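yo, DUF465 domain-containing protein is done. seq:
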Amino acid sequence: MSLASHLDELQRKHGDIERELTDAMNHPSVDDLEIVNLKRRKLAIKDEIEKLKGSPTTH
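structure:
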């Protein structure tokens, strides 16, 4: 998988989690722990995106 396609996939996942998080926060029946887990996953993906964007293209 190329770096660009990997970044695209991570950005897609980040957006998916963002939508899932927004939906979860709009439903009072959702457990706070689930919201925390979604935020952690979103942050981990964002960190991975930033790390890949800052890395040299030769791997």
